[in-house]
Fold this protein.
Amino acid sequence: MTVATLPDVLGGPRAVAGLVVLGWEEARAFVDAAEAEGRAVILQAGPGARAYMPLEVWGRMFRVLAEAASVPVVCHLDHGDGFETCHRAVEAGFSSVMYDGSALPLWQNFEVTQRVVDMAHAAGVSVEAELGVVGYAGGAASQATDPAEAVALSATGIDALAVSVGNLHLMTEAEAVIDFNALHAIGAAVPGLPLVLHGGSGIAAEVRRRIVAETAVRKFNIGTELRQVFGASLRNAMLDPAIYDHIGILSRTVGPLTEAARGVIRGL
Ligand SMILES: [Zn+2]
């Protein structure tokens, strides 16, 4: 049984990939990739995944894979939108939850984060919180994380903190310009607290390596670049008229997804 929490995997000198999962093919490919690389991995179910399939199914699916894996696997809820969602996730078998109160005033973010930490820690489940707004490519604007607010929020006992330092969600090109000074300032304000960068697909591989070497970032959320591999390999499988059933078509994506995820994991 290798179900892990964030503190179990984020303490080392390297960063761990938080990989966005939208289906069974990705989940098993990412665990295969982690095993092949001999590294831990974080499987993440976000709002889109939960709107498509019940949270309870994601929790159990991640758990089954984690229990059979030879490397630590964190079963993580991404962007939990409130106490209730995080509580349901803990009941469903997730070993880690993110509560995202970044859109709220600090005192309100603090209050809900504290309730989530108390509830989750009592169940042995870790918590990621967020401060500042990580915007979306072509969508919502970002708002930088304030180091003083990070100090305040860290008093809740969170296990990791997602920050906004130039990273953006849903970038299809690795063009994000990371503010290293801001990352250093946040890291110095909350020593020992692992930081998280969402929007990892927008950060070039060499920049990811520099971030890990120089800062407290220990988790990168990566989705878009792997979803692009899924789409391309699925389109490829569809070209063969002899393959027509669900398993026949979708299983063709597992190999390419595993290869791409191995590259991501190796680069962190
Ligand atoms: Zn995010």
